[in-house]
Amino acid sequence: MKRPPKQKRNLRGEAAKLTKFSRKDLLQIWGIIALIFGIVGGSIAYRISVEKAAFAKSLTSTIDEWRTTYHLNDAQARRILEIEFAFHGTGNRLTRPGHGPGDTAAHHAEMAAVMNPADGTRFLRDQEHHQPHK
To answer: Can you spell out the DSSP letters for the chain?
Structure first.
């Protein structure tokens, strides 16, 4: 019995066929990649919004305490809250403003200027005691 002649195999062509993805496969791969990026991005956005809300709540709570301590009216409390947000930012770690050594003292003086003179003086004295010493 005679064997049939061997046919040469085109390995490059077969390998190329094996590595080609169908349109459906490519859409599924890109869909999975998009889903992963969506989950990561959504998680980061959620975390940032939670931090911002917690920061705003904390800042509002502090201003409410200062209302009674430093006899602030509504207009003064609103203005001090604006000053605080301008100085500290919105609570997002990625966009937190940087401050130099004298910036904190100027910030406290700006808030004290909004208060009644006696309360502003007391506020500045109180803030000096709360500052960490370097």
So the answer is: -PPPPPPPP-HHHHHHHHHPPPHHHHHHHHHHHHHHHHHHHHHHHHHHHHHHHHHHHHHHHHHHHHHHHTT--HHHHHHHHHHHHHHH-SS-GGGPPP--TTHHHHHHHHHHHHS-HHHHHHHHHHHHHHSPP-
Low-confidence ranges of the chain (pLDDT < 70): 1, 4-19, 131-134
Q: Is 2 left (phi over 0), alpha (psi -120 to 50) or beta?
A: beta
pLDDT at residue 99, as a whole number:
81
Distance CA 83, CA 28 (A): 50
d(CA 91, CA 111): 19
pLDDT recorded at residue 7: 66
**Closest to 116 measured CA to CA, from 62, 70, 63:** 70
